[in-house]
Amino acid sequence: MSEVLLQLEGVHTHIGPYHILHGVDCAIPAGGLTVLLGRNGAGKTTTLRTIMGLWQASSGRIRFDGLDISKAPTPDIARAGIAYVPESMAIFTDLTVRENIVLAARSGPVDSGRLDWMLGLFPALKRFWNLPAGNLSGGQKQMLAIARAIAEPRRLLLVDEPTKGLAPVMVRSMIEAFRALKAAGETILLVEQNFYAASALGDHVLVMDDGRIAHSGAMSDLVADPVLQQRLLGLSLDAHQ
Ligand SMILES: Nc1ncnc2c1ncn2[C@@H]1O[C@H](COP(=O)(O)OP(=O)(O)OP(=O)(O)O)[C@@H](O)[C@H]1O
C-alpha cells in the first residue's frame, strides 16, 4: 500500500452515554479514493465526525500525516488540511453560489485557475452563479458543498453520502466530478451506500459493522466477489441504481 495519510488506531467514541465506535482501526493511503461502506447506523458518520474532532474520541489515536490529531480542536484539524462535507451539506441558502464559494476561501480570493477547474467539475454552479443557493436542486446543493470544501487546496476530503436521494442522472454527474477530483490527485474518504457509485469510484474499501472495521481491501476484490459482498453488505446496499 502507498504512503498512509490518515491512520485510526483503536478509536472509541461515546456520544453521551452511548458507546458508538468500538475500536476503529484503519489506514487511508495518500492519493486515491477510499469508500466507507456499511449498513445504516454502523458508525460511518460518527467516524468522519470523530476524525474532524466534532465528536472527541474517548480513546485510541488518530494520526494525520504523522501528526496526532486525536485531541485537536476542529479548526486546527481543518487547518492541517482536512475538509469535511457533511450529509446536511452546510451551505448558505440565502447567499448566492458565488458568495458561498467566496466565503469558503478563508485565506483570500479563490485562485482564478482553481475556480475555473471547480466550475468545470460542476458546470451547474456556473449556470446559477448569481442565484441564491436555496434555489439549487438537492444534487446541485451537494455539488456546491463539495466545491466549498475544495475552494482552497486540501490534503484530505471527507464526504458523507453525496449521492443520497439523487436521481440516476445526477449520480452519474457526481461520479464524473469525483473521477476528475481523483485525476487531480486528491485523497478522498467517501461514505457511500450506493454500490454503483462506490464501485465506480473506489480504489480501496472499508466496511464498517457495529462501530468497527469489518473489512479493508481493494475495491476491485470486493466487486469481483459476490459472496464477500453478500457476507459483508447483505441487502444494505442499493446495487440497482
Ligand atoms: N447524537 C447522537 N446521539 C446518540 N446516538 C447517536 C447520535 N448520532 C448517532 N448516534 C447513533 O450512533 C450510531 C451510528 O450512527 P452513524 O450516523 O455514525 O451511522 P451511519 O453508519 O453513518 O448510518 P447512516 O448510514 O444511517 O447515516 C447509530 O446507532 C446512531 O443512532
From TrEMBL:
State the source organism's domain of life.
Answer: Bacteria
UniProt cross-references to SMART domains, sorted A to Z:
AAA (SM00382)
> Domain ABC transporter, which positions?
6-235
- In the record, what terms sit under GO molecular function? ATP binding; ATP hydrolysis activity; branched-chain amino acid transmembrane transporter activity
Keyword Ribosomal protein in the entry? The reply is: no
List UniProt keywords, sorted A-Z.
Answer: Amino-acid transport, ATP-binding, Nucleotide-binding, Transport
**Among its keywords, does the record have Transport?**
yes
> What CDD domains does the record tag this protein with?
ABC_TM1139_LivF_branched (cd03224)
The processes (GO biological process) annotated in the record are:
L-amino acid transport
Check the record and name the Gene3D superfamilies matching this protein. Answer: P-loop containing nucleotide triphosphate hydrolases
One Pfam family here? ABC_tran
The UniProt similarity line reads: Belongs to the ABC transporter superfamily.
Q: What is this protein called?
A: ABC transporter ATP-binding protein
